[in-house]
Amino acid sequence: MANPAKAKGTRFENEVLELLRRVWPSADRAKAGNPSNDFHGIPFPVEAKHRKRWEIPKWVGGLRQVAGGDGRWALAVASGDRRSEGGSTVMIFDINFAMELLECWAGHDGLPTDT
């Protein structure tokens, strides 16, 4: 791949894909140019971005559109050199979807119900 930025994005998508396959073994990367959804074989759209500058409102807007009004979507974002202290990788969810996931996790003894 000649474009270093595209190669970095592809590597990050592959990293996210391996994590998604822990839950959805048949998950795969979507074809290039698929708007705001980098994967298929999972029950909601996921966009993976590896950028120096985060444009979260823009990316969330695209995900909301692809989700068709459903609040179930996820945005995986990485920045900088993640091997260094300044780099990071996060997953962003709609608040209602995040609460649904946390309630499901708590119901399966994944989280304490109170502290």
Folded structure, characterized:
- 37% of the residues lie in helices and 18% in strands.
- The protein is globular.
- It has helices at 4-20, 56-67, 95-107, and strands at 28-29, 39-40, 46-50, 74-79, 88-93.
- The N and C termini lie far apart (50 Å).
- The chain has one domain (4-107).
- Helix 2 (56-67) links the parallel strand 3 and strand 4 (74-79).
- It has 115 residues and is an alpha+beta fold.
- It has a three-stranded mixed sheet, with helices on both faces. A two-stranded antiparallel ribbon has the order 1-2.
From the spread of the alpha carbons, the general shape counts as: globular
Number of helices: 3
Beta-strand content estimate = 15-25%
Low-confidence stretches: none
Summarize it.
This protein is of the alpha+beta class. The chain has one domain (4-107).
Please give the structural blueprint.
Layout: H1 4-20, E1 28-29, E2 39-40, E3 46-50, H2 56-67, E4 74-79, E5 88-93, H3 95-107
Parallel strand pairs: 3-4
Antiparallel strand pairs: 1-2, 4-5
Keywords:
single chain, alpha+beta, two-stranded antiparallel ribbon, 3 helices, 5 strands, globular
